[in-house]
Write a structure and sequence with these properties.
Elements (H helix, E strand, L loop, with lengths): L1 H22 L6 H10 L18 H12 L4 H4 L6 H11 L2 H12 L5 E4 L16 E5 L2 E12 L6 E7 L10 E7 L5 E6 L7 E2 L2 E14 L3 E2 L5 H37 L1 E3 L2 E2 L4 H35 L1 H26 L1 H4 L5 H7 L10 H15 L1
Parallel strand pairs: 1-4
Antiparallel strand pairs: 2-3, 3-8, 4-5, 5-9, 6-8, 7-8, 10-11
The structure holds flavin-adenine dinucleotide (FAD).
The site of flavin-adenine dinucleotide has 21 residues, from strand 1, strand 3 and helix 12.
Protein backbone atom coordinates (compact mmCIF):
# COMPACT_ATOMS: atom_id res chain seq x y z
CA UNK A 1 0.00 0.00 0.00
CA UNK A 2 2.85 2.43 0.86
CA UNK A 3 4.32 1.86 -2.61
CA UNK A 4 0.93 2.57 -4.24
CA UNK A 5 0.48 5.78 -2.25
CA UNK A 6 3.93 6.97 -3.21
CA UNK A 7 3.24 6.28 -6.92
CA UNK A 8 -0.03 8.22 -6.56
CA UNK A 9 1.81 11.17 -4.96
CA UNK A 10 4.20 11.34 -7.89
CA UNK A 11 1.30 11.06 -10.34
CA UNK A 12 -0.48 13.99 -8.73
CA UNK A 13 2.60 16.17 -9.05
CA UNK A 14 2.83 15.15 -12.75
CA UNK A 15 -0.87 16.07 -13.19
CA UNK A 16 -0.24 19.65 -12.08
CA UNK A 17 0.94 20.49 -15.60
CA UNK A 18 -2.57 19.69 -16.89
CA UNK A 19 -4.50 21.69 -14.31
CA UNK A 20 -3.90 25.11 -15.80
CA UNK A 21 -5.88 24.61 -19.03
CA UNK A 22 -8.54 23.02 -16.87
CA UNK A 23 -8.78 26.10 -14.67
CA UNK A 24 -9.15 28.19 -17.81
CA UNK A 25 -11.84 25.87 -19.19
CA UNK A 26 -9.81 24.95 -22.23
CA UNK A 27 -9.73 21.52 -23.78
CA UNK A 28 -8.32 18.80 -21.56
CA UNK A 29 -6.90 15.60 -23.02
CA UNK A 30 -8.50 13.09 -20.67
CA UNK A 31 -7.15 10.10 -22.60
CA UNK A 32 -3.59 11.30 -22.07
CA UNK A 33 -3.87 11.52 -18.28
CA UNK A 34 -5.79 8.24 -18.16
CA UNK A 35 -3.11 6.50 -20.17
CA UNK A 36 -0.55 7.60 -17.61
CA UNK A 37 -2.76 6.49 -14.68
CA UNK A 38 -3.17 3.05 -16.25
CA UNK A 39 0.52 2.64 -16.95
CA UNK A 40 1.32 3.47 -13.31
CA UNK A 41 -1.16 0.86 -12.04
CA UNK A 42 -3.62 3.39 -10.59
CA UNK A 43 -6.64 2.47 -12.71
CA UNK A 44 -10.03 1.91 -11.01
CA UNK A 45 -8.74 1.43 -7.44
CA UNK A 46 -12.28 0.77 -6.15
CA UNK A 47 -12.96 -2.21 -8.43
CA UNK A 48 -12.03 -5.84 -7.75
CA UNK A 49 -8.95 -7.12 -9.56
CA UNK A 50 -10.97 -9.44 -11.83
CA UNK A 51 -12.78 -6.35 -13.13
CA UNK A 52 -9.58 -4.51 -13.96
CA UNK A 53 -9.27 -2.65 -10.66
CA UNK A 54 -6.91 -2.68 -7.68
CA UNK A 55 -9.25 -4.51 -5.28
CA UNK A 56 -8.67 -2.08 -2.39
CA UNK A 57 -10.70 -2.12 0.82
CA UNK A 58 -12.64 1.08 1.51
CA UNK A 59 -10.05 2.08 4.13
CA UNK A 60 -7.18 1.66 1.66
CA UNK A 61 -9.10 3.40 -1.09
CA UNK A 62 -9.83 6.28 1.31
CA UNK A 63 -6.10 6.90 1.76
CA UNK A 64 -5.49 6.84 -1.97
CA UNK A 65 -8.52 9.05 -2.54
CA UNK A 66 -7.06 11.79 -0.35
CA UNK A 67 -3.97 11.90 -2.56
CA UNK A 68 -6.01 11.88 -5.79
CA UNK A 69 -8.21 14.64 -4.33
CA UNK A 70 -5.25 17.04 -4.32
CA UNK A 71 -5.88 17.55 -8.03
CA UNK A 72 -9.30 18.27 -9.63
CA UNK A 73 -8.22 15.71 -12.23
CA UNK A 74 -7.01 12.93 -9.91
CA UNK A 75 -10.14 10.81 -9.65
CA UNK A 76 -11.14 11.37 -13.26
CA UNK A 77 -7.71 10.23 -14.44
CA UNK A 78 -8.03 6.96 -12.47
CA UNK A 79 -11.67 6.33 -13.46
CA UNK A 80 -12.93 6.56 -9.87
CA UNK A 81 -14.78 9.88 -10.24
CA UNK A 82 -18.31 10.56 -9.03
CA UNK A 83 -20.93 9.80 -10.21
CA UNK A 84 -19.41 6.96 -12.28
CA UNK A 85 -17.82 5.29 -9.28
CA UNK A 86 -21.22 4.98 -7.58
CA UNK A 87 -22.82 3.69 -10.77
CA UNK A 88 -20.03 1.12 -11.20
CA UNK A 89 -20.35 -0.11 -7.62
CA UNK A 90 -24.13 -0.34 -7.95
CA UNK A 91 -24.06 -2.26 -11.23
CA UNK A 92 -21.34 -4.58 -10.05
CA UNK A 93 -23.30 -5.50 -6.94
CA UNK A 94 -26.89 -5.46 -8.22
CA UNK A 95 -26.76 -5.38 -12.05
CA UNK A 96 -27.99 -8.39 -14.04
CA UNK A 97 -25.57 -10.22 -16.32
CA UNK A 98 -26.79 -8.33 -19.38
CA UNK A 99 -26.66 -4.98 -17.52
CA UNK A 100 -23.08 -5.71 -16.55
CA UNK A 101 -22.16 -6.44 -20.16
CA UNK A 102 -24.02 -3.48 -21.65
CA UNK A 103 -23.44 -0.82 -18.98
CA UNK A 104 -20.87 -1.83 -16.36
CA UNK A 105 -18.07 -3.10 -18.60
CA UNK A 106 -17.78 -0.02 -20.86
CA UNK A 107 -17.88 2.17 -17.73
CA UNK A 108 -15.23 0.17 -15.87
CA UNK A 109 -12.91 0.21 -18.87
CA UNK A 110 -13.32 3.98 -19.26
CA UNK A 111 -14.94 3.87 -22.73
CA UNK A 112 -18.01 5.77 -21.53
CA UNK A 113 -19.22 8.02 -18.71
CA UNK A 114 -22.60 8.00 -16.98
CA UNK A 115 -24.81 10.10 -14.71
CA UNK A 116 -27.29 9.69 -11.87
CA UNK A 117 -30.65 11.49 -12.12
CA UNK A 118 -32.57 11.63 -8.87
CA UNK A 119 -33.01 15.26 -7.78
CA UNK A 120 -35.93 17.28 -9.19
CA UNK A 121 -36.20 21.06 -9.48
CA UNK A 122 -39.72 21.23 -8.02
CA UNK A 123 -39.40 18.69 -5.19
CA UNK A 124 -37.19 18.71 -2.07
CA UNK A 125 -34.14 16.53 -2.70
CA UNK A 126 -33.72 16.13 1.06
CA UNK A 127 -37.09 14.36 1.24
CA UNK A 128 -36.91 11.97 -1.70
CA UNK A 129 -40.24 10.33 -0.85
CA UNK A 130 -41.72 13.38 -2.60
CA UNK A 131 -40.02 12.74 -5.95
CA UNK A 132 -42.58 13.05 -8.76
CA UNK A 133 -40.82 11.35 -11.71
CA UNK A 134 -42.51 8.08 -12.65
CA UNK A 135 -41.95 4.94 -14.70
CA UNK A 136 -45.06 3.06 -15.82
CA UNK A 137 -45.17 -0.42 -17.30
CA UNK A 138 -46.37 -0.75 -20.86
CA UNK A 139 -45.99 -4.17 -22.49
CA UNK A 140 -42.42 -5.24 -21.83
CA UNK A 141 -41.22 -1.66 -21.34
CA UNK A 142 -41.13 1.12 -18.76
CA UNK A 143 -42.33 4.52 -19.98
CA UNK A 144 -40.55 7.21 -17.98
CA UNK A 145 -41.78 10.77 -17.43
CA UNK A 146 -39.58 12.83 -15.15
CA UNK A 147 -37.98 16.24 -14.82
CA UNK A 148 -34.59 16.11 -13.08
CA UNK A 149 -31.75 18.50 -12.45
CA UNK A 150 -28.22 18.56 -11.11
CA UNK A 151 -27.49 15.33 -12.94
CA UNK A 152 -23.73 15.77 -12.66
CA UNK A 153 -21.75 15.03 -15.82
CA UNK A 154 -24.85 14.17 -17.90
CA UNK A 155 -23.25 16.12 -20.76
CA UNK A 156 -21.44 13.45 -22.77
CA UNK A 157 -22.77 10.53 -20.69
CA UNK A 158 -23.70 7.32 -22.48
CA UNK A 159 -26.41 6.44 -19.96
CA UNK A 160 -28.27 7.69 -16.92
CA UNK A 161 -29.51 5.82 -13.89
CA UNK A 162 -32.85 7.43 -13.09
CA UNK A 163 -34.81 7.20 -9.86
CA UNK A 164 -38.53 6.98 -10.70
CA UNK A 165 -41.75 6.00 -9.00
CA UNK A 166 -42.82 2.51 -10.12
CA UNK A 167 -45.01 1.42 -7.20
CA UNK A 168 -47.24 4.32 -6.07
CA UNK A 169 -49.37 1.99 -3.89
CA UNK A 170 -46.44 0.75 -1.81
CA UNK A 171 -45.06 2.27 1.43
CA UNK A 172 -43.20 5.57 0.75
CA UNK A 173 -39.71 4.05 0.84
CA UNK A 174 -40.72 1.18 -1.46
CA UNK A 175 -42.29 3.22 -4.26
CA UNK A 176 -39.19 4.01 -6.30
CA UNK A 177 -36.85 2.08 -8.56
CA UNK A 178 -33.57 2.76 -10.31
CA UNK A 179 -33.66 2.26 -14.06
CA UNK A 180 -30.94 2.41 -16.72
CA UNK A 181 -31.61 4.77 -19.62
CA UNK A 182 -29.17 5.11 -22.54
CA UNK A 183 -29.00 8.83 -23.29
CA UNK A 184 -29.72 8.24 -26.99
CA UNK A 185 -33.17 6.82 -26.09
CA UNK A 186 -35.95 8.89 -27.76
CA UNK A 187 -37.58 11.06 -25.06
CA UNK A 188 -34.35 11.65 -23.12
CA UNK A 189 -33.36 15.31 -23.37
CA UNK A 190 -30.47 17.18 -21.79
CA UNK A 191 -32.18 20.56 -21.49
CA UNK A 192 -29.08 22.55 -20.48
CA UNK A 193 -25.98 22.60 -18.35
CA UNK A 194 -26.91 24.63 -15.26
CA UNK A 195 -24.68 27.61 -14.45
CA UNK A 196 -23.16 27.04 -10.99
CA UNK A 197 -21.53 30.04 -9.30
CA UNK A 198 -21.14 31.72 -12.68
CA UNK A 199 -19.72 28.68 -14.50
CA UNK A 200 -21.77 26.59 -16.93
CA UNK A 201 -19.08 23.95 -17.38
CA UNK A 202 -19.12 21.27 -20.02
CA UNK A 203 -18.64 17.53 -20.40
CA UNK A 204 -17.59 15.85 -17.18
CA UNK A 205 -17.37 19.22 -15.39
CA UNK A 206 -21.05 20.14 -15.59
CA UNK A 207 -24.44 19.60 -13.97
CA UNK A 208 -27.46 19.20 -16.21
CA UNK A 209 -31.19 19.68 -16.23
CA UNK A 210 -32.69 16.65 -17.99
CA UNK A 211 -36.17 15.58 -19.05
CA UNK A 212 -37.59 12.15 -19.71
CA UNK A 213 -40.70 12.48 -21.90
CA UNK A 214 -42.47 9.19 -22.69
CA UNK A 215 -38.99 7.73 -22.61
CA UNK A 216 -39.28 4.00 -23.25
CA UNK A 217 -36.78 1.39 -22.07
CA UNK A 218 -37.14 -2.42 -21.68
CA UNK A 219 -38.10 -3.64 -18.21
CA UNK A 220 -34.81 -5.51 -18.20
CA UNK A 221 -33.18 -2.10 -17.52
CA UNK A 222 -34.55 -2.14 -13.96
CA UNK A 223 -31.70 -2.48 -11.43
CA UNK A 224 -32.44 -5.01 -8.67
CA UNK A 225 -36.05 -5.42 -7.53
CA UNK A 226 -38.91 -3.08 -8.30
CA UNK A 227 -39.37 -0.69 -5.37
CA UNK A 228 -35.78 -1.08 -4.18
CA UNK A 229 -34.65 2.37 -5.37
CA UNK A 230 -34.10 3.79 -1.88
CA UNK A 231 -32.38 0.73 -0.51
CA UNK A 232 -30.00 0.86 -3.50
CA UNK A 233 -29.47 4.61 -3.06
CA UNK A 234 -28.44 4.06 0.57
CA UNK A 235 -26.00 1.34 -0.47
CA UNK A 236 -24.51 3.68 -3.04
CA UNK A 237 -24.33 6.78 -0.87
CA UNK A 238 -22.53 5.15 2.07
CA UNK A 239 -19.19 4.50 0.37
CA UNK A 240 -19.88 7.55 -1.83
CA UNK A 241 -19.74 9.86 1.17
CA UNK A 242 -16.43 8.35 2.28
CA UNK A 243 -15.08 8.94 -1.25
CA UNK A 244 -16.21 12.59 -1.21
CA UNK A 245 -14.87 13.25 2.29
CA UNK A 246 -11.41 11.88 1.48
CA UNK A 247 -11.34 13.91 -1.74
CA UNK A 248 -12.23 17.03 0.28
CA UNK A 249 -9.39 16.28 2.70
CA UNK A 250 -6.99 16.09 -0.26
CA UNK A 251 -8.24 19.48 -1.45
CA UNK A 252 -7.94 21.00 2.04
CA UNK A 253 -4.42 19.62 2.53
CA UNK A 254 -3.25 21.04 -0.80
CA UNK A 255 -4.87 24.42 0.02
CA UNK A 256 -2.96 24.39 3.32
CA UNK A 257 0.31 23.37 1.62
CA UNK A 258 0.12 26.18 -0.93
CA UNK A 259 -0.86 28.61 1.86
CA UNK A 260 2.29 27.67 3.80
CA UNK A 261 4.45 28.21 0.72
CA UNK A 262 2.80 31.53 -0.05
CA UNK A 263 2.94 32.77 3.55
CA UNK A 264 6.68 32.20 3.57
CA UNK A 265 7.30 34.05 0.32
CA UNK A 266 4.92 37.02 0.43
CA UNK A 267 6.68 40.07 1.87
CA UNK A 268 4.47 42.40 3.86
CA UNK A 269 7.21 44.74 5.03
CA UNK A 270 10.82 45.09 3.79
CA UNK A 271 11.93 42.49 6.39
CA UNK A 272 8.84 40.42 7.13
CA UNK A 273 6.79 37.83 5.27
CA UNK A 274 3.20 36.83 6.02
CA UNK A 275 4.35 33.76 7.95
CA UNK A 276 6.00 36.04 10.52
CA UNK A 277 2.56 37.22 11.67
CA UNK A 278 0.99 35.22 14.46
CA UNK A 279 -2.49 35.62 13.04
CA UNK A 280 -1.37 33.85 9.85
CA UNK A 281 0.48 31.11 11.75
CA UNK A 282 -2.63 30.48 13.85
CA UNK A 283 -4.77 30.23 10.73
CA UNK A 284 -2.37 27.59 9.36
CA UNK A 285 -2.36 25.68 12.66
CA UNK A 286 -6.16 25.73 12.84
CA UNK A 287 -6.45 24.37 9.31
CA UNK A 288 -3.91 21.64 10.07
CA UNK A 289 -5.77 20.54 13.21
CA UNK A 290 -9.13 20.47 11.44
CA UNK A 291 -7.76 18.51 8.49
CA UNK A 292 -6.07 15.95 10.72
CA UNK A 293 -9.22 15.52 12.84
CA UNK A 294 -11.26 15.02 9.67
CA UNK A 295 -8.77 12.52 8.26
CA UNK A 296 -8.88 10.34 11.37
CA UNK A 297 -12.67 10.54 11.54
CA UNK A 298 -13.05 9.48 7.92
CA UNK A 299 -10.61 6.59 8.24
CA UNK A 300 -12.55 5.45 11.29
CA UNK A 301 -15.84 5.68 9.36
CA UNK A 302 -14.31 3.77 6.42
CA UNK A 303 -13.19 1.06 8.86
CA UNK A 304 -16.73 0.87 10.23
CA UNK A 305 -18.13 0.44 6.69
CA UNK A 306 -15.55 -2.32 6.00
CA UNK A 307 -16.48 -4.10 9.25
CA UNK A 308 -20.19 -3.35 9.74
CA UNK A 309 -21.50 -2.47 6.27
CA UNK A 310 -23.14 0.80 5.23
CA UNK A 311 -26.11 0.40 7.55
CA UNK A 312 -24.01 -0.31 10.62
CA UNK A 313 -21.81 2.72 9.88
CA UNK A 314 -24.75 5.08 9.19
CA UNK A 315 -24.13 7.49 12.07
CA UNK A 316 -20.37 7.65 11.46
CA UNK A 317 -21.04 8.41 7.78
CA UNK A 318 -23.50 11.22 8.58
CA UNK A 319 -21.06 12.65 11.13
CA UNK A 320 -18.20 12.95 8.64
CA UNK A 321 -20.45 14.21 5.83
CA UNK A 322 -21.34 17.47 7.57
CA UNK A 323 -18.14 17.82 9.63
CA UNK A 324 -15.68 17.41 6.75
CA UNK A 325 -17.74 19.56 4.35
CA UNK A 326 -17.65 22.39 6.95
CA UNK A 327 -13.91 21.90 7.50
CA UNK A 328 -13.32 22.23 3.75
CA UNK A 329 -15.16 25.56 3.54
CA UNK A 330 -13.19 26.99 6.48
CA UNK A 331 -9.79 25.81 5.24
CA UNK A 332 -10.44 27.15 1.72
CA UNK A 333 -11.66 30.45 3.10
CA UNK A 334 -8.50 30.85 5.22
CA UNK A 335 -6.31 29.91 2.25
CA UNK A 336 -7.98 32.55 0.07
CA UNK A 337 -7.60 35.15 2.82
CA UNK A 338 -3.88 34.41 3.11
CA UNK A 339 -3.49 34.77 -0.68
CA UNK A 340 -5.34 38.12 -0.75
CA UNK A 341 -6.57 39.18 -4.21
CA UNK A 342 -4.51 36.41 -5.79
CA UNK A 343 -6.73 33.87 -4.00
CA UNK A 344 -9.75 35.14 -5.94
CA UNK A 345 -8.13 34.85 -9.35
CA UNK A 346 -7.86 31.67 -11.39
CA UNK A 347 -4.06 31.80 -11.07
CA UNK A 348 -4.35 29.24 -8.26
CA UNK A 349 -6.90 26.44 -7.81
CA UNK A 350 -8.35 28.07 -4.68
CA UNK A 351 -11.09 30.02 -6.44
CA UNK A 352 -12.14 26.97 -8.47
CA UNK A 353 -12.46 24.89 -5.31
CA UNK A 354 -14.18 27.66 -3.40
CA UNK A 355 -16.82 27.98 -6.15
CA UNK A 356 -17.18 24.32 -6.85
CA UNK A 357 -16.99 22.80 -3.39
CA UNK A 358 -19.52 25.09 -1.69
CA UNK A 359 -21.87 22.39 -2.88
CA UNK A 360 -20.23 19.91 -0.47
CA UNK A 361 -22.60 21.05 2.28
CA UNK A 362 -25.61 20.35 0.04
CA UNK A 363 -25.14 17.35 -2.25
CA UNK A 364 -25.48 13.78 -0.97
CA UNK A 365 -27.71 15.27 1.74
CA UNK A 366 -27.48 18.77 3.21
CA UNK A 367 -25.78 19.35 6.59
CA UNK A 368 -29.07 19.62 8.45
CA UNK A 369 -30.28 16.19 7.37
CA UNK A 370 -27.03 14.51 8.46
CA UNK A 371 -27.00 16.38 11.77
CA UNK A 372 -30.53 15.10 12.39
CA UNK A 373 -29.37 11.50 11.85
CA UNK A 374 -26.56 11.99 14.39
CA UNK A 375 -28.78 13.78 16.92
CA UNK A 376 -31.53 11.17 16.68
CA UNK A 377 -28.98 8.46 17.47
CA UNK A 378 -27.53 10.44 20.40
CA UNK A 379 -30.97 11.06 21.86
CA UNK A 380 -32.06 7.45 21.41
CA UNK A 381 -29.03 6.29 23.38
CA UNK A 382 -29.34 8.86 26.18
C1 LIG B 1 -22.88 20.40 -7.34
C2 LIG B 1 -24.06 19.50 -7.14
C3 LIG B 1 -24.05 18.23 -7.71
C4 LIG B 1 -25.14 17.39 -7.57
N1 LIG B 1 -25.15 16.18 -8.24
C5 LIG B 1 -26.28 15.43 -8.25
C6 LIG B 1 -26.38 14.26 -9.08
O1 LIG B 1 -25.42 13.87 -9.79
N2 LIG B 1 -27.57 13.59 -9.12
C7 LIG B 1 -28.65 14.00 -8.38
O2 LIG B 1 -29.69 13.35 -8.46
N3 LIG B 1 -28.57 15.08 -7.57
C8 LIG B 1 -27.43 15.82 -7.49
N4 LIG B 1 -27.37 16.96 -6.74
C9 LIG B 1 -28.55 17.37 -5.96
C10 LIG B 1 -28.38 17.22 -4.46
O3 LIG B 1 -28.29 15.89 -4.08
C11 LIG B 1 -29.55 17.98 -3.80
O4 LIG B 1 -29.33 19.36 -4.06
C12 LIG B 1 -29.65 17.71 -2.31
O5 LIG B 1 -30.14 16.42 -2.06
C13 LIG B 1 -30.61 18.72 -1.62
O6 LIG B 1 -31.84 18.76 -2.28
P1 LIG B 1 -32.46 20.18 -2.75
O7 LIG B 1 -31.43 20.93 -3.48
O8 LIG B 1 -33.74 19.89 -3.44
O9 LIG B 1 -32.72 20.98 -1.40
P2 LIG B 1 -34.02 20.95 -0.47
O10 LIG B 1 -34.40 19.57 -0.12
O11 LIG B 1 -35.06 21.82 -1.09
O12 LIG B 1 -33.46 21.66 0.84
C14 LIG B 1 -33.09 23.06 0.83
C15 LIG B 1 -32.37 23.40 2.11
O13 LIG B 1 -33.26 23.21 3.19
C16 LIG B 1 -32.59 22.77 4.34
N5 LIG B 1 -33.20 21.52 4.81
C17 LIG B 1 -33.59 20.46 4.05
N6 LIG B 1 -34.08 19.48 4.83
C18 LIG B 1 -34.01 19.92 6.11
C19 LIG B 1 -34.36 19.36 7.36
N7 LIG B 1 -34.88 18.11 7.46
N8 LIG B 1 -34.16 20.10 8.48
C20 LIG B 1 -33.62 21.36 8.39
N9 LIG B 1 -33.26 21.93 7.22
C21 LIG B 1 -33.46 21.24 6.09
C22 LIG B 1 -31.12 22.56 3.95
O14 LIG B 1 -30.36 23.70 4.34
C23 LIG B 1 -31.18 22.48 2.45
O15 LIG B 1 -29.96 22.91 1.84
C24 LIG B 1 -26.26 17.80 -6.81
C25 LIG B 1 -26.25 19.06 -6.19
C26 LIG B 1 -25.18 19.91 -6.35
C27 LIG B 1 -25.22 21.26 -5.70
Amino acid sequence: MDQLLSVAREFIVWLEAYERPFVNDEHLDIELIRHRARSLGLWAPHLPKDHGGLGLSLTDFAQLSEILGRSPLGHLACNCQAPDIGNMELLLEYGSESQQRQFFEPLASGQVRSCFAMTEPHQPGSNPTMLAGKAEKDGSDYVINAHKWFASSADGSAFAIVMAKTNPEAKPYQQYSQILVPTDTPGFERVRNIPVMGHVGSGYFSHAEVRFTDCRVPQSHLIGEEGSGFALAQQRLGPGRIHHCMRWIGIAQRALDISCTYAQSRAITPDEVLADRQVVRHALARSHAEIQASRLMVLDAAGQVDRLGTRGARVAISTIKFFVAGMLQRVLDRAIQIHGALGLTDETLLSYWYRHERAARIYDGPDEVHMDVVARDLLKKS
